[in-house]
From TrEMBL:
GO cellular component assignments: plasma membrane
Residue ranges occupied by any ABC transmembrane type-1 domain in the UniProt entry: 39-330
SUPFAM superfamilies: ABC transporter transmembrane region, P-loop containing nucleoside triphosphate hydrolases
Protein name: Xenobiotic-transporting ATPase
Membrane topology of this protein: Multi-pass membrane protein
Transmembrane segment boundaries: 183-203, 269-288
Keywords: ATP-binding, Cell membrane, Hydrolase, Membrane, Nucleotide-binding, Transmembrane, Transmembrane helix, Transport
Cell compartments where the protein resides: Cell membrane
GO terms assigned for molecular function: ABC-type transporter activity; ATP binding; ATP hydrolysis activity; ATPase-coupled lipid transmembrane transporter activity
InterPro entries per the UniProt record, alphabetical: AAA+_ATPase, ABC1_TM_dom, ABC1_TM_sf, ABC_transporter-like_ATP-bd, ABC_transporter-like_CS, P-loop_NTPase, Type_1_exporter
Amino acid sequence: MNSQGLDILKRKFRSANTIINHLIQTLSLVWAASGYWTLASMVMLLVQGILPAISLTFTRQVVDNLVVVAGNGLSVANVQKILIPVALMAGIMLLGEFFNSSGEWIRTAQSELVNDHITALIHNQSVAVDYGFYEYSEYNDKLNRAREGASGRSLALLESIGSLLKNSVTLLAMATILIPYGLWLPTILIISAFPAFYILMYLSKIQYQWSQRTTTDRRWLMYYDYLLTNSSTAAEVRLFDFANHFQSAYQILRRRLVKEQFHLLKLQTLGRFIAAIIALIITGGALAWMGRQVLLGILTLGDLALFFQVFNQGQGIVKELLSNIGKIYRNSLFIGNLFEFLQIQPTIVDPENPVAVPTKPQKEIRFRQVTFRYPGATEAVLENFNLTIPAGKIVAIVGDNGAGKSTLIKLLCRFYDPDSGRIELDGIDLRNFAVKEFRRLITVLFQSPIPYYTTAGENIALGDITALSNQVEIESAAKASGIHEKIMRLPLGYNTMLGKLFPDGTDLSGGQWQRLALARAFFRRAQIIILDEPTSAMDPWAEYDWLERFRTLAEGRTAVVITHRFTLAMQADIIHVMRAGRIVESGNHDELLALGGLYAQSWKAQMESSSSQKVKNGIA
Ligand SMILES: Nc1ncnc2c1ncn2[C@@H]1O[C@H](COP(=O)(O)OP(=O)(O)OP(=O)(O)O)[C@@H](O)[C@H]1O
């Protein structure tokens, strides 16, 4: 064999190996989800597999006895000879029907259990993967494929395996009936279905490749659909009147996908038709041979009836059996996407021997020569970056858009690790702490806080899920963030449902949602408080009021505030000015003004543009 042939063989072997692995993984997954139901359905399938063959053996008896009765006339004994096998056949049919309906019940129960199990696996993995997972298109493709692979495919796979088992049993029983007429008959029966099998496998592969290739396209469709149907985009869709633009983008993409799908469908139809013709020719030939045997008096009419039924049904079963194999192949390809997703390993993990996290920072948080580049990005956001945040102080970081402020927060929360350099808490590299334990030390108010559609109280309590029912603390966090009075005016106070997505929900304004998120951050009672643009949605009066409260609350804790508002930054103990991934100035408000650098220039510019001294613009 030449090297090309060897390569093909190796590839085929690897692909068969992957399919077998997927089958084993699927079986163990289904077993873990629905052990007893799986056992019950397997037993049932086995019995269902044997029943048709038993029923067929009575066919010959009935036909041969009919011939005898037709020749000898009616008598009680003769009628009995017909009635008994007929009654037995009826009994078997009844039993078959019983198993069919019970099978449906078992499959539904099993399907619910398996779907729930897979959903739980996907949920667990979605939370376990790195935060960075969600920032990359290829990962989102993986998640999407996993979902598509999961939806019904594992059970379809199991059903195909079950059906394969059942059909194999039936075929074995039927082949046993055919063997006495010649070994070549069951052989030809099986061979006749091979063209259909080959075509099915080939088309399954094409279908799978097409689906992989168009995953991103399908996500685009979901995105356009979201833009056109979501409450958060409804206002802009109307105002900018761009619905037609996205609708037509949706339709153009959809038309292309449908066209490609139709092309695949055409191939499938043609392939099936050719396979059916081949099978028909083989059946015709076998039947002609059998008819000749009867005419020659070698076989009886009963034999012919039995043969016809066995061959006819047998061919259907072989076809089904091979189609089961095809389906197993196709589903195992798709379900491979689920396993691929489940196997993604997070990179932000606990060290082997984690160091105990201090109860609060004693000395400082320090970025030492940190260089970081987002995966796939050409430029580093931070390069040899140094920053010290003294324990117990409020540190403000100001800087123009894209300077890298949010990135350093992501690094501090260990959503990413630096490519080089280290981030330390009291001299210990953050990578030496257990991730969850370290994060417990931190509370963050992100730039765009999430409105959770639950009660006002729970919205705050989500900051520390272990203290969900601590009403006193919930209220004190709400007071600290300045949202308590608003909540008290809601119809059911802290028990009022927020958001308009579900019945009886009340919506809040942008600034009120932000205060609620702030209350959530406070409720966590963490020693390191990080706030990314905490007052961006607040009016200047509210901001002033909030600052007073925050000073009291942050007392003794370490706070990092990222802001474009100088009225907020000026209150900090230390202000760091950041530009293009570097700290370019540091000091308190007065020191920085005296320095006459970037901070002082931006401050002056803002003061000039705002007689009310309520700063609206960033440092840029
Ligand atoms: N997930 C990402 N992948 C690649 N590049 C990113 C990613 N997130 C941010 N960046 C890039 O990193 C740089 C710093 O972004 P960052 O969000 O940290 O800036 P910022 O200072 O917080 O800006 P702003 O004040 O506008 O919020 C930007 O140039 C941005 O394009």
